[in-house]
Amino acid sequence: MLREASAHRIKLVTFMAFVSMPLSGFVTDIYLPSFPAMAKSLHLHERDIQLTLTSYLLSYGISQLFIGNIIDSIGRYRPKVLALTLLILSSLLIAHTDSVFFICLLRVVQGVAISILVVATRALFVDLYAGERLKNYLSYFTIVWSCGPILAPFLGGYLEKIFNWQANFYFLTFYASGLLLFEILYGGESIAEKKKINLRDNLNLYKMMLQNRRFILGILVLGFSYSIVMLFNITGPFIIENAFHFSSVTIGYCTLILGFSWMIGGFITKKRMHLDFVPRVIAPVLLQAFLIIALMVVGIFQQNLYIMVGFAFFIHTISGVLFTSFFTTSMLFFPKHAGTAGGLMGGMVYIVTSLSNFIVAISGKVTTQNGLAWRYFIFSTFLIIIMLFMWKLQKVNAEQKN
């Protein structure tokens, strides 16, 4: 039992939990620069390659709705070991198949595996820590997680250029194998008291959480903030290679730069958490909309890689600000049901994101900077509407208290 372990072992487990966080970003993003190469190698339309990401995100989201409750019932340790094993096997199989259907199926398996790892890791911190220390750790989640989107496409671009697109999945095998070895040697169960699965109680628990309007609106903000980032990830590689005629290495550098924007957004939020609602989130979301409109206007006269990535950097920074702000507050709504709440939140965020990506995939080819900007604008409009509704709800609650 980890709660009864030595302080040194708990510190080691905590450190490795942070090391594991970028894995979900790597599984999502490492092969993004290889999208054009995969389409050519497998003789597929770009929409079919994008669906390998959508199938992963949808699986990742839906499975989190159930995983949280399961790991609250059976514990964290054994599900994590199983998940890492599935991730290793599925990555190896993807690297040895040329069937896009089989790749999508295996990405569904990876979505389930990563959801187990993510929900169990979130719950581990709630199991081991409390109070300000827990809140401090939670505020670092987005910052540490962003190492994945920062490094993964950069590394993936080089792996694809030096070897081939399959090398991306060999890297995931190596990463997951290292984590699995650590879990076997040093890991352990962290939950203090396992909860029996009771369908009626579970449904009532989900009902209670879903009736919390602030919690649900926060999830929608998280979903659309992440959708803005994923929009570039699924369309940018094709624009950069086909419209601007750069290689997968350049795609990797661009996503590396934009990954830093997400991390910067997280650091900015840590300094701004004490602010009131309007300066903390309303002002940033309006600034983001202004930048997107500016990108649309500039695109009428000039379109190039530097303009697109430059505007995207600041647009994504603001998405990082919004995501970190609402993630930190949403994780603290239901501390007694950390696994279930974390799973519900993460699941719904990725369902929103995967549905947004699916709509982008079927809306037609995004071949230009302006095509990207228009889709940014749609997601930004949703964010503004949600924020204004939250602001109104907050004012009503404040008046009722007075």
Automatic annotation (TrEMBL):
Entry GO CC: plasma membrane
**Gene Ontology molecular function terms on file:** sodium:proton antiporter activity
Q: What InterPro entries is this protein classified in? A: MFS, MFS_dom, MFS_trans_sf
Per the database record, which ranges form the Major facilitator superfamily (MFS) profile domain?
A: 13-398
Specify whether Transmembrane is a keyword of the entry: yes
Q: Where in the cell is it found?
A: Membrane
Chain ranges passing through the membrane = 12-33, 53-71, 83-103, 109-130, 137-155, 167-186, 215-240, 246-269, 281-301, 307-334, 341-362, 374-391
User: What Pfam families does the entry give?
Assistant: MFS_1
Q: What is its main location?
A: membrane
Superkingdom of this protein's organism: Bacteria
What GO biological process term is on the record, naming one? xenobiotic detoxification by transmembrane export across the plasma membrane
Keyword annotations of the record:
Membrane, Transmembrane, Transmembrane helix, Transport
Topology in the membrane?
Multi-pass membrane protein
Keyword Nucleotide-binding belongs to the record: no
The name on file for this protein is MFS transporter
User: What is the species listed in this Swiss-Prot or TrEMBL entry?
Assistant: Sphingobacterium athyrii
Upper classification of the source organism reads: Bacteria, Pseudomonadati, Bacteroidota, Sphingobacteriia, Sphingobacteriales
